[in-house]
Design goal:
This is DnaJ homologue subfamily C member 28 conserved domain-containing protein. With 130 residues, the protein is mainly alpha-helical. Helices cover 55% and strands 0% of the residues.
Amino acid sequence: MELNEDKLNPPYQDWMGDILKEHAKTGGMDNLKGQGQPLSEEYFAGDTFQHFQRIAKDAGYKPHWLKLQHEIREEINIIADNQLNESTKDIEKKIKKVNKKIVTYNKSCPPPLQKGHVSLLNLAAMTKTW
């Protein structure tokens, strides 16, 4: 029985490569900042993930979990500031909404940065934690 070469090497689709080639054809790669300049030695230090993080940070990219952390902090502070002016039922609804965001945050952030849920009892402490 002879093996078919196509079954051993299925076709490979390079989606990102295709996108970059199309972008270059339309002039999207012209006049990039630092084009033609050598990379600094620090870009070659560390592993691939650290390298990606450094480049992303230099480009102004913030991970989703970091944006979510800022949103949660802001919402907790607003709830704490308005605690005396609102009913307990309204505050509990807002806390429930924030806790849903905290679950999403905890799923996407690095494990050492995960945080607990907010309640009426720990609201003041959580404004300091976040």
